[in-house]
## 1
Amino acid sequence: MLYFQVLLNGLALGGLYACIAAGFSLVWGVLNVINILHGSLIVLGAYLAFFAHQRFGIDPFLFAPVAGLALFALAYPLQKYVVNRVMGRPVLITLTLTFGLNLFLDNAMLKFFSADFRKITLESPWGLLDLGGVLVPTDRLLATATGLALVFALWLLLRNTQLGRAIIAVRMDSQAAALMGIDVNRTYALAFALGAFMAAWAGVLLSGIFPISPVTSSVYLGKAFVICVLGGLGSIPGVIVGGFALGIIESFGTLALGPELALTLAFLVLIALLMFRPSGLLGKRGFQ
Amino acid sequence: MKSLLVLEGVSHRFGGVLALDRIDLALGEGEIVGLIGPNGAGKTTLVNVVSGVHRPSAGSIVFDGKRIDGLRPDRIACQGLARTFQIVQPFPRLSVAENVAAAALFAGAAGSIPEARHAALEHLEFCGLLPQADKPASSLTLAGRKRLELAKSLALRPKLLFLDEVNAGLNQSEVDHALELIRAIAKRGITIVLIEHLMKVVMKASTRVVVLHHGQLIADGTPAQVVADPQVVEAYLGRSYAAEQFAQVWA
Amino acid sequence: MNTRLITGLLVAVAAVLALMFTADNYVLRLATTVGMYAALAWAWNLIGGYAGYPSFATAAFFGLGAYAAGVFQSFGLPFALAWPLAGLLVAAFAGMLGRAILHLRGHYFAIASLVIADVLRELTNVWTDVTGGGMGLNLPLLSLGGVDGQTQFYFLAMLLMAALALLISWWVDRSRLGVALRCIEQNEDAAQVIGIDTRSSKVAVFMLSGLVAGATGAVYASWVTYIDPTDVYDVSLSVKPIVMALIGGVGTLMGPLVGAFVFLGLEELLWRNVLEFHAGLLGLLVVALVLFLPGGVRDLRRYNVWNGLIRLAPWKRRTT
């Protein structure tokens, strides 16, 4: 029964984790840029939700799209005028650039918001769901379901809209896409902004469950890494599988080793995976 | 004639695709062998498998008396089996001479860096690249880069050299130059396998021709024998054409 | 060449001695920091510059070296033994790690090397018996004759680390290994085909990088006499050396030294005055560096200011 509870704890976070990683995976897959900024964007989204709730009493679930759009609007010009200049350059250059951007954003948040941990305390009307002895907090379930729904929406967007198809085309072969009349630079900017949108949404969902502080941005970045490698890069189903896998690993890790080492365990799994199966659990080829 | 390279039952799969199908081949010292076949026949895969880029899914490869299937590419190169790449692979920011010196320094077993540089200049002269010795490799024309590939592979002091489409993209006079070079290399005692699309080159230069089709060896003989082989003609030109007089096609 | 080398060395020695005996302790400590980061930048340059593998493992090596030396000394080993042993331990670790992750390329390698510091930090945190965990580790204070003696001693010690780093870099630069690494960096597949054992070459240089960074961490630990996991495994210890190498010129011999001087000089002049936000300004500097001077300070020469302003204009059509 204990193991079942632990398993369920892990699964309850899966959709949320998928949401955390989806934007990151998109940017990595399409732009071939590891967006170190991603973790900070998540934190920023959480902060926006926190202040919206604290000052104006807006429910985070309702605020999520607003936060998403705000970060979308921030990220689009950022990619267009800054990140776009290093497209196609070596990993060292792109990674260092996003590191610099992240350093700036993190410290700006530290300065304006301070390092205090913030959490939105919602009055959860249903409390804990009791499934025959196994308890699941409903706020997590709701967050995970919402996260999963958003990831699913992204998947639909990629497959069925012109923008989505442009993104996939650019990801597969940017030169061929350009020859077919796709504005590659605009697609890059849109994909990056979409990634930020997902990050903001994830941050908002997280704000009701976990305490957030700029200090934790690297934690979410780390989780996004692990999820992408676990599930295989550049695929939505991969992100979902990875999200649930990480949830389960962390849950059992907490049981076996305590909460501090749960993420470390995930990192060790990451390294083991990179050593033996870099294409992830689903076996899809990633960018190298 | 001593067998230098022996392939027995060599097969290779990429996922579901069988790229090489039970290849049996024995190459002797001093031969100039033409390896031909339509696009996708498996010629480059064969070179990749022999040179260690891929480990064959089945079969054995023996080079100069030693098993080499499954060895890393650098170990195979050090044993005297060299290959050029269809899409040339220089070290772009090194000079032409440094490119060749690097090859001499490692598989070419030069004792020191100055020794390697010295050997490099010799090889460059042989290939007609001496004037460009100090220019960056990225500044060479395509013909120049092909010759650089050649010089690098010579610097490895190979016993067996695979030349993969060394004439692709060259004009007529460049091809003639390349042929002269190939003959000169063969005179030095190096066994050569020429992978080629250009029939004329293969027929002129080779003492023996081997034909690959859909990963299988379908013909192996002198140029004249191979040209007259109905299976070969069918592979290249299709069944309907094979029904006609085909000998004239190759004249 | 030889007379130049000798005069250069004599000038350097004279400068060092002059600095040591005339400068005040604040300047000496600054110089010690320059020495430390120069060593780390050189250490990174070995794997990141010569081999072209974007390593973020420098912090992991540094922290491991610091803790190894600290633990050795807590068991009674004198520092003169603890420091080199720590360096060797980290080199061995780098060898193991290298075998595990150096077959990865690009982003995957970068991430794996980044994550390793986090893992080591958490492991250090929980192994409280030996490392003191989150409460940190105290190192024995070496009796060197007061504050002045301490400052001078550690200045020389870090200088020694920097000299070691330079020596190793100089050796790699002109050795067969250096040629191998340059080939690997420019075209790894072609490198294999000409007979280079790419795996061993990469692991070897990674171990050298670990040796230098680890030994530097060991000296650092004794210098500050108190270390804790968040301090010595901090990601900035991986990022700053990279930025310095970028400033001075990645893959060059003296680039890391130039970069260390420029970077720390800037940090000292500008940001000590802007105490609160200087890390954020560092971020902006890094962004500016990557965008405008990707080749380092050498780009300043070729950079025509007017052309630069035109290129910044957002309405100008971009040609791919």
Note: The longest strand of chain B covers residues 3-14.
## 2
Amino acid sequence: MTNVNATINALPALQAGTPTGGADVLLKAQDLVKHFPLRRSLGQVLKGQRPVVRAVDGVSFQVGRGEILGLVGESGCGKTTTGRLLLRLEEPTAGRIIFDGQDITRLAPAEMRQLRRRMQMVFQDPYDSMNPNMDVFHIVAEPMVIQGLAKSREEAEERVAQALADVELVPVEEFMFRYPRELSGGQRQRVAIARALVLRPDLLVADEPVSMLDVSIRGGVLQILMRLVQERGLALVFITHDLALARHFCDRIAVMYLGRVVEHAAADALVRRPSHPYTQALMRAVLSTDPRRKPNDTGLPGELPNPVNPPAGCRLHPRCPLASELCRCQTPPLVERAPGHWVACHHVERALQEHFLAASAGPAVKEVIIG
Amino acid sequence: MAELEVRNLTMHYRTRKGPVRAVDGVSFTLAPGKALGIVGESGCGKSSLGLTLLRLLPPSGHVVGGSVRLGGVDLLAMDEETFRKEVRWKRIAMVFQGAMNALNPVLTVGQQITEAILAHERVSRDVAVQRVKDLLALVGINPDRWGQYPHQFSGGMKQRAIIAMALACNPEVVIADEPTTALDVMMQSQVLNAIADLRRQLGLSLILVSHDLSVVAQTCDEVAVMYAGKIVEYGPVEEIFLHPQHPYTLGLVQAFPDIHADRVTIVSIPGTPPHLLNPPGGCRFHPRCPLATDACRTWEPELVATGASSHRVACHLAAPSRAVAGGALTEVSWA
């Protein structure tokens, strides 16, 4: 143990920071924490214990105008909760949210409602997130009604028509008075995006917006989002479990594991040089559509730990092939290891070495098999 | 081990508005020990095809024509009693979509698989229990977890337990309908590894129904691409993914980019799949196809060999002049 402490003290002072993004920062999350209290047993009440689910535990990032940030991770990693915290649909336990230079962490509900004009969300399930008794016009117009923005029916119709045109539900008149049940999944998700867009927000948080859609049509929804980002400077936080999708759609990717960001980099850099053992395992688990590339099935041993009682130190250490004593006692900070490439791992160099060794061994083995 | 031969299989659902042509003239041959992937979007008939093979259609579904032969015996001509006693689960088994959520929460996983064996075979409980433990080991679950309840299993383990259950009566053919769809990637690779091991050890034939092209690319030997109840392209997995010839297959492949590829725009195929109550005339894909000609709107293309191995495609533009069509296909710009 003393050895370990000596090692810790000998380490250069690595500063944890907030990964920076594009030049024109719109949103900053700083050390966001969300703990959900659990029901306590009698024993816990008597001992004064307050068990919590550590859904999000110290997450920092920035999103710029005209930029897509992907939050990627497996179920239970806290990506959805993080997205909800950004819009304060959940109240953070700790940390700060800064939107357009203003700290909104403790903003009063009335002020927050004003601000939500500029920040909107698209949910995963286009079947569940829409009132089946409302037609498309009323669904899309509802945010304007809540915000008191629609002064007349004509104006409302005009803005709804514009929003529907933006998501390519044309001819607009044909869709305006349909009900959700008369729309396909892809069309519904476009309505959900139109509803978010009708207020002309600066920030959009999209939680798995295409995971319920067929492969052949999800590209259409993605292209609409991409166009809004490029043409209107929308800042988009794109939450997904699909690393392959994030690689092709997002500018930057933050990989989450058990409530923390373990790696954050430009999408290209992240897939070319995955530097955290968890990202590397995720990369290996993602299947290729090239049948010649055989799967490299060295996943991580064990299961996702319970977020009520996460492992001490680095949260990956019980499953990590590189784990050392240091990893068991000290949480690695998210550190910028290369320009714009942030990694939270004590053994980044070794992780990279092993990854490229494995990668270079891969094709050779394959050729032997095919040849 | 026997060969599964499906010829011209046609299955309709009766509705008040008329027949829904869910499976329309589907033919393929599954050699022993091989894996066939069936891909397509929701509503293309891929799940209905699986249910037809196992004769588990709802009352509205009925086979209109064609044959399904396992080792030469016509399974569709067999009476239900014989089929139930001799074929279903014993020779052909199925892993249903979402079945892992259908495990009974108040029975242990071991009990549920044991019941499945006892319901089909005259063996003692002890023999059945031992077989369950072997099966669990086979799918990579510690047999000591025999007495645990479903809530004590992770998603990937539940799905592997369901696969173990499908294997309970030593089938020759397993039909797996979206076996990894609800799972995280790490769990997905566990389940697919288990399936690959089983195929090696038991020599199983596999029909894998999935919308996920990467799962099929990594698991199957051959692929059938279904669109609107029909197979539009069929062939060895490398041919289908690396040299797709049907515009629909090409669109699917481009809509599903590889994580290792350079950044690309994810395309989509315009429009939506047709309703099978009233499919379009000619080629069923023509309303969505960027290459469609008058011929496509008028005549239905046959599934014909393209020259390369067993690769077959049903497209007026792909088959006759591969060189011309191939050039056109790579320049297709999807909306």
Note: Residues 1-14, 363-371 of chain A have pLDDT under 50 and may be disordered.
